[in-house]
């Protein structure tokens, strides 16, 4: 199937979803299930006051900060564990514990210990994501080619050049996998963190709308934010992955 | 004076997963003269690759010493070592040019040297290509270029022309001789092909048995004409095959 045909199919599928939604809204005829026009109106209203773009920008800032921290720290831990059997035996169980700790517990503990601050919020999201990244990167690091390692050693590549040219390129697929699942996880947790302890951002706005039972605003924020995240995936992550993979046949 | 003095007291692979422990070398000595082209000949599994890895410093789990003497008197200085592996071991995510420039310090000067090297092996027009698009013979040429670009004092080669057709292998042997004429190096070359050994070597060491010992140590001082004459080579090869039993 050509790219254009696939795009058309996706558009049709989404249009059908909107139609189903419209029919359901007409059927229920309640303010608790507003139809697409009502949600669009709420979206326009929130955009005109500047609340929607501002809050989305604030939330995206938090997503970016915690995502970058989680990727950097998680990759470092994962690579270390994947390359050293001893380290993995020592600290592998810690990763499993962290992996199974509920996100909510981490968020509450961060707020209790570090106060209701921006740093606590970002730390909480990052900690939730770090073990996922570490587990994926550990797999990648354990599968690194010994042959290329030996080549780098014989030709006496300095540590930094070996990392850049030999090690990291082998980890690109694992990096891409954890970035993709990471972005999805991060922005969901950021909303919870905002709901519990921040006074701005999409999560905070959702809570306000929840208290007013303003379902149209809730859906307006949700849809706008989903669209932005999807744009990042298509506009940023996918081109980067294509670039990193251009050597493949 | 020898460029490389190998003295291995003991090298063994411990028993692992059902395979019994194996003694590879015991009280093994080999001195290689500066500028020599030494071919290690023997059946597979004897420890020829292990020996190269020990000389390269990749395998340190043995008892014994490997000493280098660059000829400058300061014997402690490790020589520049290049290693052409059995597989080309190129970085598939870097272009041919980047692969050749890899062992050099980054910079414009290195790119120029790498490109000149590629020209010498006849692959300049493939500089921007990625290695997986190249044939095996071309990849081997790139690996040769990467080995020679650092102007090695010691060149280790582990069956670098295996699994090529005879014409391709012969062309690569020619290329190797040409490169060595321009940049003399002490070569340690592993193969199980006695024809290849006779064609390239200035000295052939035949390994046998477990632990491996030197069964024959033959100096070959042939002129270019003698090497070019197929009859003479065939005669030597047969003698060698007979000697190696």
TrEMBL record, chain A:
Subcellular location as annotated: Cell membrane
PROSITE patterns in UniProt: ABC_TM1
Protein's UniProt keywords contain Electron transport: no
Pfam families: BPD_transp_1
Principal location class: membrane
Membrane topology, from the record: Multi-pass membrane protein
Family annotation (InterPro entries): MetI-like, MetI-like_sf
Residue ranges of domain ABC transmembrane type-1 in the record: 56-238
Presence of keyword Transmembrane: yes
Domain of life: Bacteria
TM regions (residue ranges): 63-82, 94-114, 218-240
Family classification: Belongs to the binding-protein-dependent transport system permease family.
PANTHER family: ALIPHATIC SULFONATES TRANSPORT PERMEASE PROTEIN SSUC-RELATED (PTHR30151:SF38), ALKANE SULFONATE ABC TRANSPORTER-RELATED, MEMBRANE SUBUNIT (PTHR30151)
Protein name in UniProt: ABC transporter permease
């Amino acid at each position: 199937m050509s790219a254009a045909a696939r795009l058309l199919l996706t558009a049709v599928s989404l249009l059908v979803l909107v139609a189903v939604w419209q029919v359901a809204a007409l059927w229920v005829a309640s303010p608790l299930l507003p139809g697409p026009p009502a949600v669009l109106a709420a979206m326009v209203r929130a955009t005109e006051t500047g609340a929607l773009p501002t809050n989305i920008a604030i939330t995206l800032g938090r997503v970016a900060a915690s995502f970058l921290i989680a990727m950097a720290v998680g990759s470092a831990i994962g690579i270390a564990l994947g390359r050293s059997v001893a380290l993995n035996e020592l600290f592998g169980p810690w990763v499993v514990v962290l992996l199974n700790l509920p996100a909510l517990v981490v968020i509450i503990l961060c707020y209790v210990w570090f106060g209701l601050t921006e740093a606590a919020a970002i730390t909480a999201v990052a900690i939730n994501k770090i073990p996922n990244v570490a587990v994926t990167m550990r797999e990648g690091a354990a599968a690194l080619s010994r042959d290329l390692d030996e080549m780098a050693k014989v030709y006496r590549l300095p540590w930094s050049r070996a990392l850049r040219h030999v090690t990291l390129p082998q980890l690109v697929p694992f990096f891409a996998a954890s970035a993709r699942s990471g972005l999805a996880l991060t922005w969901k947790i950021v909303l919870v963190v905002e709901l519990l302890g921040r006074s701005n951002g999409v999560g905070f706005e959702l809570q306000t709308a929840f208290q007013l039972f303003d379902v149209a605003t809730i859906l307006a924020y949700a849809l706008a934010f989903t669209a932005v995240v999807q744009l990042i995936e298509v506009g940023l992550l996918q081109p980067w992955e294509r670039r990193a993979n251009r050597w493949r046949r | 004076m020898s460029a490389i003095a190998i003295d291995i007291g003991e090298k063994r692979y411990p028993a692992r997963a059902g395979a019994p422990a194996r003694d590879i070398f015991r009280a093994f000595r080999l001195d290689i003269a500066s500028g020599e082209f030494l071919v290690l000949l023997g059946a597979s599994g004897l420890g020829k690759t292990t020996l190269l890895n020990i000389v390269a410093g990749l395998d340190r789990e043995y008892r014994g010493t490997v000493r280098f003497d660059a000829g400058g008197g300061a014997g402690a200085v490790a020589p520049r070592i290049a290693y052409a592996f059995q597989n080309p071991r190129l970085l598939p995510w870097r272009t041919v040019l980047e692969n050749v420039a890899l062992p050099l310090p980054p910079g414009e000067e290195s790119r120029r040297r790498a490109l000149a090297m590629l020209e010498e092996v006849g692959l300049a027009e493939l500089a921007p290509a990625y290695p997986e698009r190249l044939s095996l013979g071309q990849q081997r040429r790139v690996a040769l270029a990467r080995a020679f670009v650092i102007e090695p004092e010691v060149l280790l080669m582990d069956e670098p022309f295996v699994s090529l057709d005879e014409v391709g292998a012969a062309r690569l042997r020619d290329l190797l001789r040409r490169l060595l004429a321009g940049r003399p190096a002490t070569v340690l070359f592993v193969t199980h092909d006695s024809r290849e050994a006779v064609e390239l070597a200035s000295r052939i060491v035949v390994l046998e048995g477990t632990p491996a010992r030197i069964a024959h140590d033959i100096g070959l001082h042939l002129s270019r004409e003698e090497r070019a004459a197929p009859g003479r080579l065939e005669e030597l090869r047969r003698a060698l095959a007979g000697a190696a039993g």
